[in-house]
Write a structure and sequence with these properties.
Layout (H helix, E strand, L loop, with lengths): L7 H7 L4 E6 L7 H11 L5 E4 L11 H10 L4 E6 L5 H13 L4 E5 L26 H13 L16 E6 L6 H14 L3 E6 L3 H13 L7 E7 L4 H10 L7 H9 L3 H17 L4 E7 L7 H7 L10
Parallel strand pairs: 1-2, 1-8, 2-3, 3-4, 4-5, 5-6, 6-7, 7-8
Helix pairs in contact: 8-9, 9-10
């Protein structure tokens, strides 16, 4: 099998297996034990473990450091990198460092606006200056250039290429929805090897978006993983519907969670249905699961949908 980075995630997808990635959020502090605890809880449940890069613009342990901790625990990280906080010089320097540490998967993102950091009890840094020296499409292209041509973004040579399996995000249901598939195509043209979508709750609407991607030939050029967030309450669903761009939650799901005697178990049941629905949509090659501060549920969920154990010998 010809590989670009040799990562497990790349090999699972190229072998035609239905891939699983899960999210591991670094702590708001320097304690490596918090990352290790999550790693040991989730060992063996996924092919790649997304390490977020200061998600919602809240200061956390760096994605590079947390990725290295996962790597030391035997898990394969998917290191996220956002355009919000660094210029292209700093980003390329971090990418060289990540490659040197053995990190082989990178997910290229724009990043949540810094105003998102002020929520609940957190003051955050809403006044921080964003950078956005380049956007997420340019970031994908930059990483591809470092890997495929061993060149920096400015054209200067690297001493050797950086072997990354390159990912990008797709928010298919954010308005204007017809535009989103064309932006996805630009990311694939720039070099995105795999795609993780925003959380999907409306399977019918997502199936329509996937049909567009299939018709444009996008699914023949990249691997699309459907995003699933495990809902824990009706309030959580309402919050995402109102505040998270591109998340469309049918009212029937919110009502169902509102009426549930055990909302968490109902959320697990909804998650199982969503995964089954995504697997049935042509062009979907895997799922990306987020169980925010409820990671202990993921082994149960993946067993129930027949996605454990993960493929061996890859």
């Amino acid at each position: 099998m010809n590989t670009k980075a040799g990562s497990r995630l790349e090999q699972v997808l190229k072998a035609g297996e239905f891939a699983v990635t899960v999210e591991v959020g670094p702590p708001r502090g320097p304690n490596a034990g918090a990352v290790i605890d999550k790693a040991r809880l989730l060992t063996g449940v996924a092919d790649g473990y997304n390490v977020t890069d200061n998600q919602t613009a809240v200061v956390r342990m760096s994605s590079i450091a947390a990725s290295k901790i996962l790597l030391d625990e035997g898990l394969e990280p998917v290191m996220q990198m956002v355009c919000r906080d660094r210029n292209r010089i700093a980003m390329q320097s971090d990418l060289l460092g990540a490659s040197a540490l053995g990190i082989r998967n990178v997910l290229c993102l724009s990043g949540d606006h810094q105003k998102a950091s002020a929520s609940g009890k957190l003051k955050g840094h809403p006044g921080a200056k964003n950078v956005y020296d380049i956007d997420s499409i340019q970031l994908v292209s930059m990483v591809a250039g470092m890997r495929d041509r061993a060149v920096q973004e400015g054209g200067d040579p690297l001493t050797e290429p950086t072997p990354f399996w390159i990912g990008a995000a797709w928010t298919p249901l954010a308005p204007p929805t017809d535009f989103r598939v064309f932006r996805l195509a630009k990311k694939v043209q720039a070099g995105a090897d795999f795609i993780q979508t925003q959380a999907i709750f409306d399977l019918r609407a997502f199936a329509h978006a996937m049909q567009q991607a299939v018709e444009l030939g996008i699914t023949e050029r990249t691997f699309i993983l459907g995003g699933v967030i495990v809902p824990k309450s009706a309030a959580m669903l309402r919050y995402m519907q109102r505040n998270v761009p591109g998340v469309v939650v049918p009212e029937a799901l919110i009502d169902r969670m509102s009426q549930a005697k055990d909302p968490l178990q109902e959320g697990v049941a909804i998650t199982l249905e969503l995964i089954a629905g995504l697997r049935a949509i042509p062009g979907v090659k895997g799922v990306h699961l987020q169980a925010i501060e409820a990671e202990h549920l993921l082994p149960e969920i993946l067993h129930a949908v027949g996605l454990l154990p993960r493929p061996m010998g890859i």
